[in-house]
Amino acid sequence: QVQLVESGGGLVQAGGSLRLSCAVSGRTFRRDSMGWFRQAPGKEREFVAAISWNFVFTHYSDSVKGRFTISRDNAKNTVYLQMNSLKPEDTAVYYCAAKPMGGAAELLGPYDYWGQGTQVTVSS
Questions:
Q1: Strand 68-73 to strand 78-83: parallel, antiparallel, or no bridges (unpaired)?
Q2: What DSSP character marks residue 90?
Q3: Residue 59 — very low, low, confident or very high, per pLDDT cuts 50/70/90?
Q4: φ, ψ of residue 39 in degrees (nearest 5)
Q5: Largest Cα–Cα distance in the chain?
Q6: Strands, sheet with 78-83, edge to edge from the N-terminal-most edge strand
Q7: Could you tell me the CA-to-CA distances from 53 to 5, 30, 39, 74, 102 in Å, in that order?
Q8: How far is the CA of 5 from the CAs of 94, 109, 124, in angstroms?
Q9: Distance (Å, whole) CA 30 – CA 34
Q10: What is the pLDDT of residues 79-90, one digit of tens each?
Q11: How do residues 14-35 score in pLDDT, each as one tens digit?
């Protein structure tokens, strides 16, 4: 059974930092490209960041570029999202997602497996 479990969300003041984690089981993690998405209240889910299965490619949305960093640890079957200089508009439920392999062009999606999400709230 495939499971993606996010953790690390919470409440933080504007300008602060959080690190999200997503632990993956039931998959050959080293062969998966991984993405982070978010959904704010009343808005559609949007792409945040992604990293390819072979570490070669990363991609960020313009809204988080320079503030967020995606990384992965294949030994721990975990993908991370380091979020710095957080803004109130970053408030959302953050989801991780997995898909087999894929190159740079595939990092935006679609993804096959999704976690349940973790809430991030940034206060002003």
A1: antiparallel
A2: G
A3: very high
A4: -140, 115
A5: 40
A6: 3-7, 18-25, 78-83, 68-73
A7: 18, 6, 24, 9, 7
A8: 11, 19, 28
A9: 10
A10: 999 999 999 999
A11: 999 999 999 999 999 999 999 9
A 10 A CB-CB count for 86 gives: 22
- How far, in Å, CA of 56 to CA of 109, rounded? 17
Beta bridge partners of 11: 121
φ and ψ at 40, to 5 degrees? -90, 155
**23 bridge partner residues:** 5, 78
Residues contacting residue 80 through CB under 8 Å, at least 6 positions apart: 19, 20, 21, 22, 70, 71, 72, 73
Direct distance between the N- and C-terminal alpha carbons of the chain, in angstroms, rounded to an integer: 40
The answer, yes or no, to whether residue 109 has pLDDT greater than 90, is no
Nearest-CA neighbor of 107 among 46, 38, 72, 60? Answer: 60
